[in-house]
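Sequence in, structure out.
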Amino acid sequence: MSRADELFIENCRQILREGYSDEGQDVRPRWEDGSPAHSIKSFCIVNRYDLAAELPILTIRKMAFRSLVEEMLWIWKDKSNNVNDLNTRIWDAWADADGSIGKAYGYQMGIKHQYAEGQFDQVDRVLYDLKNNPASRRIMTNIYNHHDLYEMGLYPCAYSVTFNVTGNKLNALLNQRSQDMVVANNWNVCQYAVLTHMMARVAGLELGEFVHVIADAHIYDRHIPVLESLFENQQYAAPQLWVDPAVNDFYDFSVDSFKLIDYQYSTMEGKLPVAV
């Protein structure tokens, strides 16, 4: 089986078995029909993935690989905060009439800051340090800018990434304040696994570990029946990730720079409702 399948099932079963339910409480999230979206949660789940061994992608359901890569590039490469720059419509609920999600995600990545070596935005500072200061313990990004929260369509969920070079291996740690396990868990895991592949490529490093820290890992009430059917699905070995060998500059990557080889997956039964 895929390591991603193993950890996802383990996490979700633990949440359902031991988690805390907010049923009966006044909650912010709502379903499309306006009813409250209650959930069961666990505090602080930490997962580790060996990126040199395999791409952490689910096989018990099909992941929209191109779409998740596109969103990651929208934030990290394009540094955009406008949904009109995306082919998918996953951000529309948080956008204004002009398509902007405010000072969130890509906007924060593109703000330039002053350093001793000059001005860099957060992405370019990471790229600079991986190439010039790989032993640094300060290679990180953070888009949870309290000063700008009131101008964000959605407070950042996945908000901080720390890159760490050990020997010649690149490791990455993602901090996430909140995670809808069924809708978004493997989406984010795949995104930041691919991002680590990109950073390792341009810095001339080998792949190490990806560590995912989730503060509030929750399962919504209407997702439980779908989740229980996923547990019974056939599991397959993880596919191979192909990364275009001709690309060595971070800003030359595109959605077409990545392909899955031999991706086998099971079909998910039932429509997956989304809480907002």
